[in-house]
Amino acid sequence: MKFNPMYLTKEEESILAGDNGEMLSKLLRLLVELGDSYGADKLIEIKSAHTVLNIGLRFVTAAAKILRDVAEAGLKVKVRTTADPIIDMHYEEELGAATALYQLQDQLEADLKKIGVHGFTCTPYFLDNKPNKGDHCAWSESSAVIYLNSVIGARSNREGGVVDIASAITGKTPNMGLHLTENRKGGILYKIKVDDYNLLDLTSMGLKIGETAGSVIPVIEGLPNISFDELKNLGAASAASGAVALIHVLGVTPEAQTMEDAFQGDSPKDTIVITQDDLAEMEEKYSTEWDDPPVNIGIGCPHLSETEVKEVLNRIKGKKVLEGVNFWLCMCPDVIDTIRNSEYNEIVQNSGVKLAYHCPMLVPAPRPYTTNSAKSCVYVNASYRNIEECIKLATEGR
Length: 398
Ligand code: F3S
Known about the structure:
Rossmann fold; binds FE3-S4 cluster; four-stranded parallel sheet; single chain; globular; 14 strands; 16 helices
């Protein structure tokens, strides 16, 4: 389908014409062409951006080159901009030879900092990049986007690397997708028929929702007491097993306090009941079983909140991680500082857990790998276990 070109202000036309330099013109053109191809009517101002241009592996060479051009042109981000996690080189020894694969890392990080990107985590809302309800944003990182839309009530599409940088530099995004109220209308009603649930059950629900929702927005009935941290993990699972970028949890999501709100006055197109059997099916489907005991155990995909870290540390208190096992707790650098400067640091020291700011999925070797993260299990081969079992494996082995 061909749409009419979007309306551009005089200032935008002048930027496109190259009056503010060639690089800025190119970045704006990227957004204009993206918007035109999806039928956006105009560009809108954003309040915040988040990029997935964070890892200096060879497959990002082309994107890293664009970033370099942006940095060399002296352009700076217009809004608060963060990036996904980078490698935590405090653990160079544990990460092993894999660190040599990150040939572009130093350059990439230097260029990100040069254009004004600060803060490397997939939970930027635990740093100072936390927009307000209703703010328009340009975030990539699917787990962060779904949190932004579903918990904060701000608005972002699932952007991609380079488009996110173009928005951060210009301060604009095309007015389309989840920026429009009508596109945030719920489509499928999910009824949770599970008597009792823990975090693993919630993330398994997320997997099931992601698999079945397609491009329709899910509305969940039956989880009125879910915490924001739990919703972070459920949402990340849905965004990994499917294309979901917004979930309405009735009574929790700002725009979905009632059924009427969530479906914007319409009726659900479909209703799906999730039972205990569905959760068991997801656990089996996404878990890889290894013959050997785990070498790496990772918790913190998405990165952990301070509350979540403290919960894990309270559970491991008095126990010790086995020799030869890396038990990773991953979080943003600020949360690491908070924990290290608190009474919880004693538990960290005594138990031998490793607090790191990398993405646990970037721990490439050696396998076998075990995690409580449904998202990780979608992307890599890993045993899918609840936190209790992860701690037991780390401290007692099989
Ligand atoms: Fe974050 Fe890495 Fe998971 S970026 S959401 S910890 S895959």
